[in-house]
Amino acid sequence: MTETKQPIIQIRNVSKRFGKVTAVDNVSLDIRAGEFFVLLGPSGCGKTTLLRMIAGFELPTEGQIVIDGQDMSLVPPNKRPVNMVFQSYAVFPHMNVTDNVGYGLRISGVSKGEIRDRVSEALELVKLGGFEDRMPDQMSGGQRQRVALARSLVMRPKVLLLDEPLSALDAKLRAQMQFELADLQNKIGITFVTVTHDQDEALSMASRVAVINKGEVAQLAPPSDLYEYPANRFVADFVGSVNIFEGTLTLDEPDKAAVDCPGLGKVYLNHGVTGPHGANVWIALRPEKIYLHVPGEGKAVRAAAQDAPDGHNLARGTIKGMSYLGDVTLYDIQLEGGQIIRVSRPNLSRHDQEDFTWDDKVSMHWRADSPVVLLS
Amino acid sequence: MFNRTAIAPLEYTRKLWMRSWVGLTILFLYAPLIVLMIFSFNDSKRNVMWKGFTLKYYEKALNNDSLVEAMVNSLTIAFFATIVSLVIGALAAVMLWRFRFPFKGLVEGTMSLPIIVPEICLGVAFLIFFAKVDWPSDLPWPLNLSAITIAHITFCFPFVAMVVRARLASFNKEEEEAAKDLGATEWQAFRDVLLPHLKPSLVAGALLAFTLSLDDFVITFFTSGPDTITFPVKVYSMVRFSVTPEVNAASTILIVLTVALTFIALKYQGVKGISDAH
């Protein structure tokens, strides 16, 4: 997983048009050997088309896909060194688990003994030992997915492609599979490329994420960068939940910056943003990075916000909505300017959610390193 | 003790009117067939009064060379017509399902035409057609059955195509892609994934084609020559003089044959598989 490794997949200026619709628009990106790469985006953004082009089920209208140094333009899906786990799993319903997993080996003429060994090894890997003779209709969705996974892994592909691998599983199983997939990838070291619309999935499994919007790469970064340093409003809004306020850049120096937001107030940052002075910008502020204070704690608020000049990074409002989620409580607070800001507050003790209620007047502050300035 | 439980909404069998309705339906459907079978054992030249049990009409039917010949002709025609309609019908269905091409709607419409067009029109059309192209009628058996077989294929294959298309609608294309992804060629993916999925519909389609061909009268009547009498045509000519138990015996044999065939197909495929195909 070193940065110096040559990319296993190079996507060069790839576009895909279906008639007049552009599904993928001039995308270039490199996927490194051994990484867990996630294509994240809303439905219809072109991420699945991109994955299917890597697998060979769609041909790029323009551009080139290179896998392991070999141009794939004229290589059909059955000759590519990649294997795919389909969204519907596509387990062959008329074959039992052993035959399903061994299918690829069987048609490529591997000897019976080797097929047996490799199939049982693959089933062991996905924790399906003992299911050899089961038919797919006797298995749960999660187990069928493991069959699909084993069926691909047994081929020892250079890259494993996964199309929305967890979307059909229930919440508990999904969380478990997220860990297992990441663990599996770590263990066998194959490059994984996953498509998902679920940001939690992307954040928890990926080593790097490409956020796709309308066929273009909106941002390509490791999960924490994506969350903490979104490149634009689309990424900030799509990954996690966020408050976005429009404002004007009034101060921009290497170690500090300030934005005047009519809806929120004066926002101070302890780093520069290198944007044109007076430019129209947006402030993104995550709900969990805002501290709530009981009214009348003015001194405490000012003390807390002392990493910013007086009057910055403070706001006041009225609680208009609350939802208690167990671990956190979400508050929708109407600011004095009328806009709504969302704040999440961890319930560190059993009675924390009782501190605030509807129509309470509250104060807020946030640290100078919390807001993100977005130029687009 | 009186211990009657309430009738649940779906317990139809516990309602008297429902039971009698089902009974009446079955009676209506099967009474004529059962009467036909019973009277095939009737020891009488006329088919009106029961005069005692005999097997002599079976003997007579089996010794009636022209009747046996007609039966063999019918089975031969049905066999070839089934195989060819199965191939053409399945391929047509797969073609219409998989590809986009100009005039696809037109092709689809014309294909189901033989189902819609009245049989009598088809029969006349075939009569004129085979006369116009001067189709040889003096070929040795079984080639002399070619005209009838061709006519049968024409109205059988759309049924096969229909059944196969219905089955294709439930096919998950990702399964075929998965096969290719694992290294299968186009042909291997077809053989290993699509064909097994279609199997119940192929069995159902074949059964349908076989029975349609076996009992077709109208079209066959117009396309058959003096040497190419089929079973239904033969029975018709026999009935014109009188309905003898011999006809009953021959019909019973045919019924038993078709029922046995259906039973074997169901056994081989499973009832569920065939009902799934529809």
How is the secondary structure organized here?
The complex is a heterodimer of chains A (376) and B (278).
Chain A: E1 7-18, E2 21-32, E3 36-40, H1 47-55, E4 62-67, E5 70-71, E6 82-85, H2 97-107, H3 112-125, H4 141-153, E7 159-163, H5 171-188, E8 191-196, H6 199-205, E9 208-213, E10 216-221, H7 223-228, H8 233-238, E11 243-253, E12 256-261, E13 265-269, E14 280-285, E15 290-293, H9 298-304, E16 314-324, E17 328-335, E18 340-346, E19 361-366, E20 372-374
Parallel strand pairs in A: 3-8, 3-9, 6-7, 7-8
Antiparallel strand pairs in A: 1-2, 1-4, 4-5, 9-10, 11-12, 11-14, 12-13, 14-20, 15-19, 16-17, 16-19, 17-18
Chain B: H1 16-39, H2 56-63, H3 65-98, H4 104-111, H5 113-116, H6 119-132, H7 146-168, H8 173-181, H9 186-214, H10 218-223, H11 231-239, H12 245-269, H13 271-276
For the structure shown, list the relevant keywords.
heterodimer, A: alpha+beta, Rossmann fold, OB fold (Dihydrolipoamide Acetyltransferase, E2P), 6-stranded mixed beta sheet, 5-stranded antiparallel beta sheet, B: 278 residues, mainly alpha, MetI-like fold, 13 helices, 72% helix
Provide a compact summary of the structure.
With 376 residues, chain A is an alpha+beta fold. Chain A contains 9 helices and 20 strands. In chain A, α2 crosses α3, α2 packs parallel to α4 and α3 crosses α4.
Q: Can you describe what's shown?
A:
The complex is a heterodimer of chains A (376) and B (278). By secondary structure, chain A is α+β, with helices and mostly antiparallel strands. Helix content of chain A is 24%, strand content 35%. Chain A has 2 domains: 7-237, Rossmann fold; 242-374, OB fold (Dihydrolipoamide Acetyltransferase, E2P). Chain A is built from 9 helices and 20 strands. Chain A is elongated and about 80 Å long. With 278 residues, chain B is mostly helical. The model of chain B has no long low-confidence stretch (mean pLDDT 86). Chain B has one domain (56-276): MetI-like (MetI-like fold). Chain A binds chain B through residues 55, 57, 76-79, 82-84, 86-88, 90-94, 103-104, 107-108, 148, 151-152, 155, and chain B through 172, 174-175, 177-185, 188, 192-193, 196-197.
